[in-house]
């Protein structure tokens, strides 16, 4: 069964085309990653899926229920963890979760609320007022709130932005368990290592369009071989070696170059070329290409 069907969704904010015709089909039980740089349209797409904003064109269904036409049924299927922390400061954690349960018509939900709090390490904060929680604790409540009605589809919009290692581990352990039990998970994150570890399939968005859609394994395979990462102290990459660049240097590390190599013997040729051009190398690593390289290459408009 299709968990989320997004068909030709468009959204414009005045002159800005935030989404330019996005179509995606996410199957039940998938762990799906929605990746893209700042402003790519990820949050806009998630807000449309959650029924929080209306698209200008296109259609979204969740487990077959139209988000616009059949909002209540669609919303029941969905648990959304938003990026921003918004709470009523006067309620305790437990009250917040009971209130959210009530919104879904669940009167006796305490057993599941306790289980969710336990799994997110929130039990000892159950009677604490929301305003007295730290940012990381508030984020745990946000996750718990999204899960009170045991939604078959869980959407997480950058759930680990600015949170400590402990919460990340707690969160991923619980979300992985829910995914193993059959829940569909859709994740946006800027932590590509996290996406690589968790997501089986990925869509990359750029300027409101899907620019890559594939399984994680297939995406990783697209960059075959290894890469030679060079930090140069002096000089720039000679013209002859530019075709080997996986992506141009990033703005914050202009002297770091990643070159694609298919054979270790090529390292010798590259080093000879650099020596001849008078380049001084500060540091050098040989490593496997990862999702970050693929992401940067796709966002740069290069072909794989
Ligand atoms: N309410 C709004 N009014 C006007 N423009 C908006 C509004 N919401 C989003 N935008 C613009 O739409 C584009 C897509 O924004 P969106 O928040 O969906 O991107 P994103 O991929 O989630 O980015 P980030 O990774 O920074 O969270 C951006 O250019 C943003 O400035």
TrEMBL record:
Q: Which Gene3D superfamilies would you find in this protein's record? A: P-loop containing nucleotide triphosphate hydrolases
Pfam families recorded: ABC_tran
Q: Which residues form the ABC transporter domain?
A: 4-232
Q: Could you tell me the keywords of this UniProt record?
A: ATP-binding, Cell membrane, Membrane, Nucleotide-binding, Transport
Q: Which InterPro entries match?
A: AAA+_ATPase, ABC_transporter-like_ATP-bd, ABC_transporter-like_CS, ABC_transporter_ATP-binding, P-loop_NTPase
One molecular function GO term is: ATP hydrolysis activity
* Name of protein: ABC-2 type transport system ATP-binding protein
Task: Please tell me the species this chain comes from.
Answer: Rugamonas rubra
């Amino acid at each position: 069964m299709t968990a989320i069907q997004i068909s030709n969704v468009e959204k414009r904010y005045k002159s800005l085309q935030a989404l330019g015709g996005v179509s995606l089909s996410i199957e039940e039980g998938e762990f799906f990653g929605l990746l893209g740089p700042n402003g790519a349209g990820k949050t806009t797409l998630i807000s449309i899926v959650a029924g929080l904003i209306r698209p200008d064109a296109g259609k979204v269904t969740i487990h077959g229920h139209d988000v616009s036409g059949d909002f209540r049924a669609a919303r029941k299927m969905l648990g959304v963890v938003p990026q921003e922390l918004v709470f009523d400061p006067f309620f305790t954690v437990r009250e917040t979760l009971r209130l959210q349960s009530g919104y879904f018509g669940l009167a006796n939900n305490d057993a599941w609320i306790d289980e969710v709090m336990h799994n997110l390490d929130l039990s000892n904060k159950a009677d604490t007022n929301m305003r007295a929680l730290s940012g990381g604790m508030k984020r745990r409540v946000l996750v718990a709130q999204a899960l009170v009605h045991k939604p078959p589809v869980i959407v997480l919009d950058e759930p680990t932005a600015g949170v400590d290692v402990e919460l990340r581990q707690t969160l991923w352990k619980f979300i992985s368990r829910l995914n193993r039990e059959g829940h569909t998970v859709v994740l946006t994150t800027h932590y590509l290592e996290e996406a690589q570890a968790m997501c089986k399939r990925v869509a990359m968005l750029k300027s409101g369009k899907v620019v890559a859609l594939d399984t994680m394994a297939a995406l990783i395979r697209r960059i075959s071989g290894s890469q030679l990462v060079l930090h140069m102290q002096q000089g720039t990459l000679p013209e002859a070696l530019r075709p080997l660049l996986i992506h141009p240097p990033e703005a914050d590390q202009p002297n770091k170059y990643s070159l694609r190599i298919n054979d270790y013997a090529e390292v010798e040729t590259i080093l000879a070329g650099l020596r001849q051009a008078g380049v001084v190398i500060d540091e050098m690593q040989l490593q496997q290409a990862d999702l970050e390289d693929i992401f940067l290459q796709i966002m740069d408009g290069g072909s794989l």
